[in-house]
Automatic annotation (TrEMBL):
GO BP annotation list: nucleobase-containing compound metabolic process
Span list, region Disordered: 296-319
Domain HRDC: from-to ranges: 224-304, 313-385
Family matches, as InterPro entries: 3'-5'_exonuclease_dom, HRDC-like_sf, HRDC_dom, HRDC_dom_sf, RNase_D-like, RNaseH-like_sf, RNaseH_sf
PANTHER family in UniProt: RIBONUCLEASE D
SMART domains hit by this protein: 35EXOc, HRDC
GO function terms (MF aspect): 3'-5' exonuclease activity; nucleic acid binding; nucleotide binding
Annotated PROSITE patterns: HRDC (PS50967)
Protein name according to UniProt: Ribonuclease D
Organism for this UniProt entry: Longilinea arvoryzae
Length: 385
């Protein structure tokens, strides 16, 4: 039965995708989307082309049709909320985490009943888990990925980009059927469901605190408090210009250029020309702003360093090392990546709490009950020894 579904979906004559750019069209397709037990989903954003990225396209595929929804033309996508939150309709993504974050951030959607084909491929120990690699391995299909870094905010969207977008969701239902059958055969369905459920709870990341951006940019580079103040002023200048021109910050000035400027602190245009990472074009565009920022930084109070715990608890460190070693050895025996055996956040919580018995460990691992059942005793043994 599953093989027949896959064969039909792979060999059908493709209809043109349905372009949805009005409320009227959206209302017409919602019933089709909501009525499908399996719904493949993907999104495209403009993160490489805008100061604040946004979802510029949402692709849906049912077993019979592909839809391309234009959020730039339809500001209210609330009719889609019941579909994403419906526990009866399975939403199939490939590498869902980023899509979920973007959809939650831009539209406030909540999620139930997901299947992630990349997560499934990782659990099954596939050596390459990108969508193109998995489709080629499973079905011999080669995707054209030339538009992966395209500007999805441009309108009208070129026909070639529309074609690219529809294929990012078109084959996911067939791929899901193949991978789910293998997960069941291998006794890994519970483990996969555990990760799919965790994906539904993916939080929107907290933005970095702009007041100490300099320390993050400096990284391992040793800088003085005064250089940090200059770097912070340069960060503020770059952020302002990026916002004014609606560009990502890296397209205004690179991180390495800001660090080099902070360390050298040029005082005039001639000294600025000696900065290796500042090209003539950047010099022409930013010379005055950069020199003003450097002067402001030299007069400003140094930003406070983020607080760090320099006195690591030795017992905590030992537990972390023991868990990492156990996880690595277990993953090698199962031929999967380490975080498939035990997600990093759960591993850290176990090390922090240091449970004394299985009951205490079970409470910490309540979001991963399959892993507790399979590995709980081994985990407890690892941290107690």
């Amino acid at each position: 039965m599953i093989q027949a579904i896959i064969s039909r979906m792979l060999n059908e004559i493709l209809k043109d995708p349905v372009w949805v750019d009005s409320y009227h069209k959206l209302d017409r397709i919602v019933a089709d989307l909501a009525g499908s037990p399996f719904l493949a989903v993907d999104t495209e954003s403009n993160s490489l082309f805008a100061y604040q990225e946004q979802v510029c396209l949402i692709q849906f595929s049912t077993p019979t049709s592909d839809y391309l929804i234009d959020p730039l033309a339809i500001s209210d996508l609330s009719p889609l909320e019941p579909i994403f939150s419906d526990p009866q309709t399975e939403k199939i993504f490939h590498a869902a985490e980023y899509d979920i974050i973007c959809l939650k951030r831009d539209f406030g959607f909540s999620f139930n009943n997901l299947f992630d084909t990349m997560v499934a491929a990782r659990i099954l120990g596939r050596p390459a888990v990108g969508l193109g690699s998995v489709l080629e391995a499973e079905f011999g299909i080669q995707l054209d990925k030339r538009y992966q870094r395209a500007n999805w905010g441009q309108r009208p969207l070129p026909p070639a980009q529309k074609t690219y977008a529809r294929f990012d969701s078109h084959y996911l239902i067939a791929l899901r059927q193949r991978l789910s059958a293998e997960l069941i055969d291998c006794g890994l369905w519970e483990l996969a469901q555990e990760d799919f459920n965790r994906l539904c709870q993916t939080p929107i990341p907290v933005l970095d605190n702009p007041s100490d951006a300099c320390w993050r940019l400096a990284g391992r580079t040793e800088i003085t408090p005064r250089q940090a103040a200059v770097l912070q002023a340069l960060c503020t200048y770059r952020d302002t210009r990026a916002r004014q021109t609606n560009q990502p910050q890296f397209k205004v000035l690179s991180n390495s250029a800001l660090v080099e400027l902070a360390l050298a602190a040029p005082q005039n245009r001639s000294e600025l020309m000696g900065i290796q990472s500042i090209s003539p074009r950047l010099l022409e565009r930013h010379a005055e702003g950069l020199l003003n920022a450097i002067r402001q930084g030299q007069l400003a109070a140094p930003p406070p360093r983020p607080r760090r715990n320099h006195h690591r608890d030795e017992e905590l460190s030992n537990r972390q090392d023991a868990l990492r070693l156990w996880r690595k050895e277990t993953a090698q025996s199962l031929k999967v990546e380490s975080d498939v055996v035990l997600p990093r956040d759960v591993m850290q919580a176990i090390a922090d709490v240091n449970p004394e018995n299985l009951n205490a460990l079970e409470k910490i691992m309540e979001s991963v009950p399959y892993r507790f059942k399979r590995f709980g005793a081994d985990i407890l043994h690892a941290i107690q020894n």
